[in-house]
Amino acid sequence: NQDNLDCLMLSLEELFCSVDDFCEVFEPLWQRQLLGHNLQIRKRKRSLCLSEVMTILIGFHQSYYRNFKKYYQKKVQTQWQTYFPGLISYNRFVEFMPDTLIPLCAYLRTCFGTCTGISFMDSTSLKVCHNRRISQHQVFKDVAARGKTSVDWFFGLKLHLVVNDKGELLNFQVTPGNVDDRKPVPELLQHLFGKVFADKGYISQKMFKELLESVGVQVVTKLKRNMKQRLMPFGDRLLLRKRAVVETVIDQLKNISQIEHSRHRSPVNCFVNILCGLIAYCHQPKKPGIAMEDNLLCSA
């Protein structure tokens, strides 16, 4: 109805203002850095500016469409024509998408939440093709790899996430599917503090000690069955049960923001899709979180 349409337009306007304010600061700095590295780029004026392209890409992950082509042709070109008067054809727009990779990375950093001292860490698989088509797949031949989850083998990438107790994104990293979950941890946690709660796949006594000494972050996990039991503060035990927060975030990223599908025809556009999905999640007004009573128990 019209009320829902008005709410959507207001959301679109707010999104565009946020992206456009960022681009006004970022683009001149980006151009100077490229010139400093003697990289010559054509400055041919386009009918759509960078902030408009980024807004359309992020808007897809906030919509109910599951296919970007249908979204662009039925939503953007039909209903948003007045908001984007310089709209181009779908094929031409797809050619613009790789140019947004670096700006989207920088913009996502501005959307991160603030570390509260209580964080949750996990990883998830991003399949790029069905297992039966792995031998025939060529698009991600030199980027993706075979990996294993607790459920099954897959061919694709891994998304590593860290969120705070409010469900806000603190850091992320994308790796090939065969990378151990513990490898990206030092880089993921280098700007955080306090305690990080994770599953048993992150157990590493050497890594725990190095993180505590160098970064000041304590990683808390459950123990495996064959490990010697040790005493754990009651607050930590309670917060380990709340690790479903990061699992809920991953579920929303996959089922609402659509960061995973097997229709990619370019690795760069795949990463653009992942970044836009993460940004769309960061702009969600309601995020999964835990009650403040748990924070008090942890600090007690």
Feature tags:
disordered C terminus, alpha/beta, globular, 300 residues
What does this structure look like?
By secondary structure, this protein is an alpha/beta fold. Helices cover 45% and strands 14% of the residues. The protein has helices at residues 2-36, 50-61, 68-79, 90-96, 101-110, 185-188, 205-214, 234-241, 244-255, 267-282, 292-299, and strands at 118-127, 145-148, 153-164, 169-176, 194-197, 217-220. Strands 1, 2, 3, 4, 5 and 6 form a 6-stranded mixed sheet that branches. α1 packs across α2 (50-61), α2 packs across α10 and α8 runs antiparallel to α11 (292-299). The longest helix has 35 residues, at 2-36. The chain starts with a helix and ends with a helix. Residues 1-10 and 294-300 have low confidence and may be disordered.
How are the secondary structure elements laid out?
Layout: H1 2-36, H2 50-61, H3 68-79, H4 90-96, H5 101-110, E1 118-127, E2 145-148, E3 153-164, E4 169-176, H6 185-188, E5 194-197, H7 205-214, E6 217-220, H8 234-241, H9 244-255, H10 267-282, H11 292-299
Helix pairs in contact: 1-2, 2-10, 5-10, 8-11
